Design the sequence.
């Protein structure tokens, strides 16, 4: 591997740190939009929602979700891996393998000590925990699996991926709720900037569509009430939006320093050029309606990338399809960017993958920049008077994109923004 380009991250005499670009050389996507990058891109560009009735949730008030279609862990991972892993780890492991293969890296020959793993998650193995709790109640403590703890702990998503890939470098899990994936990518970029490792497998996964979690989300008023109309339930920025559709999925990116990627002849899909984070310090679940925290994160990301608002051509919005979130985000975008960037929320197709959303949407943003295409926002049929931004609707839009941002906001007031630039 080529000698690291340390000069790129050195502070100049004016106290300004030059932009540090990190190359995205591989992508892996396992989402309700499909398995693999091409299946995902085709579906999100179609603008057709992946929400459907979910028989596993029973006949209660929540009956729909967005699950990954056709995901067979036995086939994709083998019995040895599949039976001892919770679904959120299974999703991450397959997406990580996809990303490494897409990057053209050989797991058998790389220096594992120089490969880091940073993955986000917000709820851990809720399916396993619920299943084992039923065993405890029905059959007593002797029937609880000894694998309960390693299957349900959040940190095991990066732990098991590292085991699978032989990655012995820094190994971290980020937990900033629905911003977890974007936070993971931002931290991975810093590991590369500091030369703690040469390659980072970064992203997030979530599979928390258990009856208890879904009931909790519903009780707090976060989910759409369109339980008998799943295809039209998730409708970001639409005037009639009434909540999100919960989803599962995983998105993983392979990140390398640009000089290293070029030295090995890798395809660079796009660059991660900026990252900003902040806290609303306002409320446990509601965004600060003033948007001050979101504004702070956006400005920090643009400053980190040494860019201005006028440079941004596309924004992948957090856009959850909840009343207050979409209104607050739209106000911030309009205040900072006006109506220039082409905005989309891919949650109209995928639903809200919770802790995985930031990573999945970062991958979609990379593809938008690489391919010059902005996916439409599904189910946006009635414009909201307070949403005075250019939200792409009806069909994908072709547009030259040199700079894009991906917004992620989470319960607890966590805000994370990534800047993606063309390679």
Sequence:
């Amino acid at each position: 591997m080529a000698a690291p380009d340390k000069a790129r991250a050195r502070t100049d005499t004016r106290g300004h740190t030059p932009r540090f670009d990190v190359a995205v050389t591989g992508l892996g996507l396992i989402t309700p939009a499909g398995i693999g990058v091409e299946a995902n891109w085709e579906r999100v560009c179609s603008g057709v929602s992946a929400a459907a009735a979910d028989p596993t949730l029973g006949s209660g008030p929540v009956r729909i979700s967005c699950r990954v279609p056709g995901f067979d862990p036995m086939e994709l991972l083998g019995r040895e891996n599949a039976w001892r892993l919770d679904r959120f780890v299974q999703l991450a492991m397959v997406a990580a393998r996809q990303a490494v293969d897409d990057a053209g890296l050989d797991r058998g020959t790389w220096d594992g000590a120089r490969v880091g793993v940073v993955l986000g998650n917000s709820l851990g193995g809720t399916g396993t925990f619920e299943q084992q709790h039923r065993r405890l109640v029905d059959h007593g403590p002797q029937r609880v699996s000894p694998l309960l703890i390693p299957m349900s702990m959040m940190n095991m998503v990066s732990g098991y991926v590292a085991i699978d890939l032989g990655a012995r470098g820094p190994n971290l899990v980020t937990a900033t709720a629905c911003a977890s994936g974007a936070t993971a990518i931002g931290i991975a970029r810093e590991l590369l900037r500091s030369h703690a490792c040469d390659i980072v497998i970064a992203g997030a996964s979530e599979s928390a569509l258990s009856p208890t979690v879904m009931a909790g989300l519903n009780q707090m008023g976060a989910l759409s009430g369109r339980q008998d109309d799943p295809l039209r339930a998730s409708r970001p920025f639409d005037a009639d939006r009434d909540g999100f559709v919960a989803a599962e999925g995983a998105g993983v990116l392979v990140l390398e320093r640009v000089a290293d990627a070029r030295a090995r002849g890798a395809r660079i899909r796009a660059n991660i050029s900026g990252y900003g984070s902040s806290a609303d310090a306002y409320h446990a679940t509601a965004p600060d309606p003033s948007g001050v925290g979101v504004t702070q994160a956006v400005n920090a990301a643009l400053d980190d990338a040494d860019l201005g608002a006028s440079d941004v051509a596309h924004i992948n919005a957090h856009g959850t399809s909840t009343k207050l979130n979409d209104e607050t985000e739209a106000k911030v975008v309009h205040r900072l960017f006006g109506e220039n960037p082409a905005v989309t929320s891919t949650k109209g197709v995928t639903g809200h993958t919770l802790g995985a959303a930031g990573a999945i949407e970062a991958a979609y943003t990379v593809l938008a920049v690489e391919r010059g295409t902005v996916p439409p926002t599904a189910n946006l049929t009635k414009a909201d008077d307070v949403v005075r931004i250019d939200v792409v609707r009806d069909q994908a839009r072709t547009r030259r994109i040199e700079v894009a941002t991906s917004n992620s906001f989470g319960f607890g007031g966590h805000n994370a923004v990534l800047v993606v630039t063309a390679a």
Q: What stands out?
A: The chain is about 35% helix and 20% strand.
